[in-house]
Write a structure and sequence with these properties.
By secondary structure, the protein is α/β, with parallel strands linked by helices. The protein contains 9 helices and 8 strands. The chain has a 6-stranded parallel sheet, with helices on both faces. Helix 8 links the parallel strand 6 (about 170-175) and strand 7 (about 200-205).
Length: about 250
């Protein structure tokens, strides 16, 4: 029997490909000052990058974060969500591609690669083009492509990304992310594929490129862990996937 092929690698964006904490905090503060009766300056969670990130690591969805930490109603959360893309694109706070990511993307260039994110597709494209990385990705699914109620950790965006990358070809898919939401998305996608009798298995890689938190401490355990981008190549090699040397 032939081994199951690795058909695609799907990346999260924020905290996985790019360190966007400063920018996302800036955007969130502006959103709150626009839609909320409580000023951003009065919310402890928005005091610093550290408090912001610590809160995000405790929630399982962006809506939960807006409700529990930003004190927004469902209506105000929807309003903030609709403004997110335009505020992201107008915010000039710099972002940083994690060191080593570009090398990994190049060495995996024979595998279809995509992005499944809660960020805006336009904003992601803008950042990737500025870093000369956009050519590595055949599909980018941002929050605009998925209804609010079906965002991560629901699997809809991941399924859409795989439809664009492989036409839902049978095989193994790696989903790489830095948050429990990504792992839950992988698990939910596997349940969806089982119900639909689609021969795809999603394996998760929990990454920690900032050494502030570890996937080992997440309530949902990843199939693999990586503390450096280069370790993702070891995971791909272990699954029999193609890795280019000297990329």
């Amino acid at each position: 029997m032939e081994p199951t092929p690795l058909t695609a690698v799907v990346w999260d964006y924020d905290g996985t490909l790019v360190d966007t904490r400063e920018k996302n905090l800036s955007v969130t503060r502006r959103l709150i000052d626009t839609v909320s009766p409580t000023p951003a300056a009065d919310l402890p969670v928005l005091e610093s990058v550290e408090t912001y990130e610590a809160a995000l690591l405790k929630v399982r969805s962006w809506r939960e974060f807006y409700k529990d930490y930003l004190r927004l109603s469902e209506e105000k959360t929807d309003e903030a969500g609709l403004l997110w893309a335009s505020y992201q694109q107008s915010d000039t706070t710099p972002v940083r591609i994690f060191e080593g990511v570009s090398v990994v993307l190049g060495e995996l260039r024979q595998v279809p690669q995509g992005i499944f994110s809660l960020n805006s597709r336009g904003n992601i494209r803008q950042a990737l083009e500025a870093s000369d990385l956009s050519t590595y990705f055949s599909s980018i699914v941002g929050y605009e492509e998925v209804p609010f109620e079906r965002q991560k950790p629901e699997p809809d965006g991941l399924v859409l990304c795989l439809e664009e990358l492989t036409g839902l070809a049978p095989g193994i898919v790696l989903l790489i992310g830095d948050h429990e939401m990504d792992l839950l998305s992988a698990a939910n996608a596997n349940r969806y594929f089982d119900v639909e009798s689609i021969d795809i298995r999603v394996l998760s890689v929990g990454v920690n490129f900032r050494s502030q938190h570890s996937p080992s401490n997440w309530p949902v355990a990843p199939d693999f862990e990586a503390t450096r981008p280069e370790e993702i190549l070891d995971v791909v090699a272990s699954l029999g996937g193609p890795v280019n040397s000297g990329a």
